[in-house]
Please model this.
Amino acid sequence: MLAGTAVSALSVLGFQIIAGRSLGTEAFAPIGVLWTLSFVLYTVLMIPVEQFITRRLVIAGGARHAFVSDRYVPVVILGSAWVLGVAFVLLTLDRFFEGQAVFVAIAAVMFFSRGLLAVGRGLLAGRRRYASYGGTLIAEGLALFAIALIVATLEPSAAAFAVAMAISPFVIVAFRPLVGVGEAAEPFVGDETVPFLGYLILATAASQIVIAGGPIVVGLIGGTATAVSIVFVTFTLFRGPVTSAYNLVARVLPDFTDLSVQGDEAALDSWRHRISIAGLGLAAVVAVVAYFIGPALVRAFYGGDFAPSGTVAALAGAGVGAGLGALFVGQIYIASGRTKRLAAGWLPGLILAGVALLVVDADPITKVAVGLAVGETTALLILGFARGPKG
Model:
């Protein structure tokens, strides 16, 4: 999985560099918005389904019967993600997608393929088929990168690069995720599906609005297309570790679930505190490093027009460092079935991020960067040092 995560991260970076340099700041904006929309909907609605499937399979010993009574709930959630994604593109064609109706069709394919990917990855992680899980990361990343190279060579356009985003997740089918999912010896008895997923979605929605909604928010508060592109490439580059960590949490969630089933709350609390302290330290270190080298790094990858200020880079680095810690701490709450407490940690983070947007007197890019740092740090502090999952 580590190798798969590394290949996936590099492939995504390569895709964005190729698309950014081929299109320029203005023409790249639709890709930035579509990528942001995809990332938000995937993490808010689809990853909770993946984690639900993973946790259920771990508790039920890999039995397919674990989903017989409530399988309609994940289907409704994935269907809602599809509808929201397509509707957003349709309603904002003129604002974000240059009025090109082809983006609606691309979105329809993309949000179906992403839903399929989430279900397949959940089945693989729940059966601890980590080699296959890593294989999907490698295959999807390489497919995305290869198609981007072809598009850049032939006739680069935002729509053509978007097609690469839409079709690459279909590689999950090649890894046959249903293999190894058997029948239960006894009926599964688990927690309530709707409250578990409902609070998990609420928590992930709050977290992703903070960490991934920047490009859309900056456009809504008056930023230009260039500002949207700058925020997108800067935040995406710095949040690379968080994006990659979404692949790695599939490795730790089954182990945290085992500890929860065993009732080992002391071990879970110990992990929660250690991860939180590490996250705060990481946020401080990354902020300093990003201030000095962040703008140059963005300039080297994407070109001078995409470079942010040192302050924006530092704020983005701090937010991403705290967000990485909050992501892993959150797995303890998910494993314990206490997603209501997870939501209680992220909602104040979202609220304070919004307050920062209102009170900070700065340009739209800096406002969004401050909101990111404030929101992520608040959530990490609450999740890491409030009472534990069973408290």
Observations:
- The chain has a mean pLDDT of 85.
- Residues 63 and 183 are 5 Å apart (CA to CA).
- The two ends are 33 Å apart (CA to CA).
- Residues 1-190 form one domain.
